[in-house]
Design a protein that fits this description.
This protein has 161 residues and is mostly helical. The protein is built from 5 helices and no strands. The chain has a domain at 1-70.
Amino acid sequence: MSNISIDQQLNNARIAINNALNSPDIQAALTPFSYDPTRLNEALTLYNEARALVEQQRQEYGEQYQASQEFQAAWDAAQTAYNRSHKIAKVAFKNNPDAQTALMLSGTRKRSFPGWLTQALTFYDGLLNPANAPTWPPSPPTPTPPKNSRPNSTWYKKPPN
């Protein structure tokens, strides 16, 4: 396999084809090998197609590179928002083990995009979907009566249902 770049290979082919088309001596030397002007023009057409395909591949690579950069920027922004929300939720639900489990607040966070996406979707779905959402604020503890209160006193009234 040659270490010559595709650009150099195409340029060498262009020079050889053009020289053969423009020189009667080269055409005469190639005729015994069935390379007449018709076949040389076909070779020139193939060269032009190859050149166009190389340019198309470069353009598509540039588009892919741009899309990858845009994706990375969007993921970085999403991670920043998720990290902020995650920190707030950890504090808000520190005494609610059910919420911590449902929202995946404990443990390590995934670094790969598919793993991170699963965690982020689970987290936000748990916050936004009422069926999955942990209760907030958590139910207050049942108050204990003061030490010197009488039974059946009015120190605590249950909220209406």
